[in-house]
Amino acid sequence: FFLRAVRRLRHLARSSSQPASRPLPRYPRGWAASSPMVSLRPMLVDDLFQFNGVNLDCWTETFNTAFYLNYLTRWPECCAVAEAADGSIAGYIIGKVEGRGEEWHGHVSAISVAPEFRRTGVANRLMQYLEEISDAMHDAYFVDLFVRPTNTAAISFYKSLGYVVYRTVIGYYAGDEDAYDMRKPMSRDKEKKSIQNAGMRVNPEDMFST
User: Do 158 and 147 touch, CB atoms closer than 8 A?
Assistant: First the structure.
């Protein structure tokens, strides 16, 4: 399965450089935008083998290859990397869209920035990218993410982008630590219903029924 998935993704990457027979989706402003330090581009399967140089802090979850391939296959538009001038990976974001009705939302599954590129705006640009994909392309009501309450630096960062702690998921991390479910309403949620009644505490099995 792994080898077939890799071959298929590489084939898609090569074929994407050929003239398209139908209009390509509109990516958000800033897509493939450059700066003196990094440029954003779509994530490729070969990028997966460079993540070890990025996932160096204790807060970053490192998943198996099948996890990343699943996202690249199902939600390729929600996966992007920030590439440095020398071709190395400065950071990446992996996300998806899910839910029904007013729970239709974008989700940040993983975001990480290499140590030498932290506090340079890379994380901000990656988050903005996924928010605009969720808002403009998928018409989502909100974007959410999970973070450990002990990761105070990340919580402060997300709050600076407009995220609020919507609820606490008890024992979310292997039963050992709670998680904050943080949300940011998108333009479709004009009444900000997605963050009403913030402050709840729920069990993992009740997450999608409250």
Answer: yes
